[in-house]
Amino acid sequence: MRAVVVTDFHTEPSLADLPVPEPGPGEVLVKIAAAGVNPFDWKVVEGAMRDAVDHLFPLVLGSDGAGTVISAGEPGLTDPRFEPGERVFGQFMDVQRGRGSYAEYAIAPAAKLARLPDKLDFATAAALPTAGAAAHDFVEGTGAGPGQCLLVNGASGGVGQAAVQLAAGQGIRVIATTDPDTAALLRELGAAETVDFTAGPTDEQVREAHPDGIDAVIDLVSTAVEIDAIASLLKPNGAIVSANGAVDLERFAARGLRGSNLYANARPATLASLAESVQRGQLRLRIDHEVPLEEAAAALDRIKAGRSRGKTVLVVDADQGRQM
Ligand SMILES: NC(=O)c1ccc[n+]([C@@H]2O[C@H](COP(=O)([O-])OP(=O)(O)OC[C@H]3O[C@@H](n4cnc5c(N)ncnc54)[C@H](OP(=O)(O)O)[C@@H]3O)[C@@H](O)[C@H]2O)c1
């Protein structure tokens, strides 16, 4: 089968011919129709998890994918059961076994997959797992409620656009950072206010509009150094969630803030509820770049360079790709 692999850290992703993997107990083999691209995919190549777990090379890249079940290993007691021919989506990355979703066939634990609703196409489903689950978990993680004011810092990208919609859908007043070209889209998605991060420091602009402070922040872009200025916008006991491990828990607690570093957990129930929201039109996923599997390396370079205004999807099997 065709798969996009790296042979070591810091090497260029390339197309390889690998055997189709076989599912073990609790695992499902999926014929991938489309794979979703996330910043984490290039971060893995740069060794983001190098100190935490062993990696098996050649390593098939990619976490997110959607496709059709080919076969399933013996399910564990609590595993959902999948039958051949069912349409599924979820997270496939297992760096310790060299497995990922940028391939014609991929294996996921049954516990990381959900069925696709009838009207959801594969490309949209492939774009959903990591960004959607992150947005869901981060909004929940702030504890913000109706009428409270939430800044989404990094709102113009894949996670940010989903977070804006999920928060606004709960009656939270959302301030979204953006470039001028994407401001109208973010307002359409539910942002009550936008802040042009290309025009000046975000913290200064938000402080001017909210001199008494805001209730919560989802920070998708700041480093551990940059996040202090953003956190200074919070009212006492305000909540800040970092997607990039930028919160120093003790220091933020000492400042009277509720800080956390969260990692998306794409549980089947979360995936199913996100898919339902997409199907009902309550969550719009903007796919701003869709290319064939062969162009994975260039697609990763593109999101690394910035200017992501939505999700990137690799079409693995064009015949399945847009089917419902
Ligand atoms: N913890 C987790 O479980 C988890 C899960 C998903 C994602 N993440 C992380 O969350 C981050 C966002 O992910 P994503 O998929 O949404 O990435 P993305 O699609 O690349 O979006 C990032 C967005 O942030 C914008 N941006 C860059 N610098 C900014 C600044 N200073 N102020 C405001 N906006 C700025 C970018 O615009 P430009 O391109 O113009 O710079 C881009 O639109 C990534 O670092 C990713 O690794 C973490």
Automatic annotation (TrEMBL):
<dbReference type="GO" id="GO:0016491">
    <property type="term" value="F:oxidoreductase activity"/>
</dbReference>
<dbReference type="InterPro" id="IPR052733">
    <property type="entry name" value="Chloroplast_QOR"/>
</dbReference>
<dbReference type="InterPro" id="IPR020843">
    <property type="entry name" value="ER"/>
</dbReference>
<dbReference type="InterPro" id="IPR013154">
    <property type="entry name" value="ADH-like_N"/>
</dbReference>
<dbReference type="InterPro" id="IPR036291">
    <property type="entry name" value="NAD(P)-bd_dom_sf"/>
</dbReference>
<protein>
    <submittedName>
        <fullName>NADP-dependent oxidoreductase</fullName>
    </submittedName>
</protein>
<feature type="domain" description="Enoyl reductase (ER)">
    <location>
        <begin position="10"/>
        <end position="314"/>
    </location>
</feature>
<dbReference type="Pfam" id="PF13602">
    <property type="entry name" value="ADH_zinc_N_2"/>
</dbReference>
<dbReference type="InterPro" id="IPR011032">
    <property type="entry name" value="GroES-like_sf"/>
</dbReference>
<dbReference type="Pfam" id="PF08240">
    <property type="entry name" value="ADH_N"/>
</dbReference>
